[in-house]
Amino acid sequence: MGLILPALATVALASDPDPGAPAPVPDASPPDAPNPPAPPDLAGPDASGDDAPLADAAAEKPYWRRNLFKRVFSDQKFLFTDWIGQEAHRPGVTLPFMAGIVLAASSQGDDLDKPDLEVERHFFASVDSEHTSTAVGFTRLGNAGPAILFLGTSYLIGKLGGHERLAEASSLSAEALLDTGLWTTILKRATARTRPSNGGEGSFFQYQPEPGQSNASFPSGHASGAFALATVFSGLYGEDHRWVSWVSYGAAGLVGVSRIGLGRHFTSDVIVGSVIGNSFGRMVLARRGGAPARKIVPVVSPIFDPETGGTGAEMTLRW
């Protein structure tokens, strides 16, 4: 209310004449005098046409106001034609992602030390009953239900209360969560890694796990969703409200740690999940700001083997 009143006062002052300004001079020309000819149109006949794109751009909806599901659908094309190529050149993405993959691979085979399994077993054993209840609280914070409730409430508060940035952050977070959930589910089904609970040791491709075991461990959906939401809110609020980044990323990290402490995920699951969530969060922010495209271009080249006389073709991807 304190912001609205000065704005209204400003509008009122702009619309009222200045009391100290001289009164307007009436038109002294006789009423029957002919009007002077209009000046020639210096802009040319195409002036209105040049302003049309500007009017269209002004009337276009902001990215976050467009249909949510259409945005998610178009995200999938953008992911393969633009975003993967850009992320492959970012060490902050590739290094932790590959570290998580290597750590997960260490759980395969009987002749390996299996550090991923050992870290999870040690951490799980160190969590007492008091810390277990805390871990359960953070795990519930990363569930789908609380996330939907939080984003739906914050979106309505932003829309009805005139807080455009809050509504935008909520809309973009929902988009990032849908993207993350889609690909996390696909990876879980494809990798079929057993969870550490009920005797699971993190083996991959266990499409028919032992009774009581789950094969949906890799990557962590809680970690990916939490980091996707944290990345969006930090990206929109972090510059002028630093505490938002600390709180959002801190909460996302505790959600991921809680999954290890409860015996639901390995460390590698959480690392890879957090990288995926952060990447999708930044992708949504990039699309919102009109991300520069770095296309993945397939290049087909002929092949000729002089020794055998065989011919063929090879395709490489360049970005």
Entry summary:
The protein has 319 residues and is mostly helical. The protein has a domain of 222 residues: Vanadium-containing Chloroperoxidase, domain 1. It is built from eleven helices and two strands; from the N terminus they run αααααααααααββ.
Features:
319 residues, Vanadium-containing Chloroperoxidase, domain 1, two-stranded antiparallel sheet, 2 strands
State the CATH class of the domain at 67-288. Answer: Mainly Alpha
Q: What does the overall shape look like? A: flat
Low-confidence stretches: 1-33, 39-55
Main sheet summary: 2 strands, antiparallel
CATH topology of the domain at 67-288: Vanadium-containing Chloroperoxidase, domain 1
Number of helices: 11
Distance between the termini: 51 Å
The average pLDDT score comes to 82
> Could you say what the CATH architecture of the domain at 67-288 is?
Up-down Bundle
Strand order of the largest sheet: 1-2
Structural class: mainly alpha
Written as H for each helix and E for each strand, in order along the chain, the element string is: HHHHHHHHHHHEE
Name the beta content range. 5-15%
Q: What Rg is obtained from the alpha carbons, in whole angstroms?
A: 29 Å
Instruction: Give a count of the beta strands, DSSP E runs of length 2 or more.
Output: 2
Question: Roughly what percent helix?
Answer: 55-70%
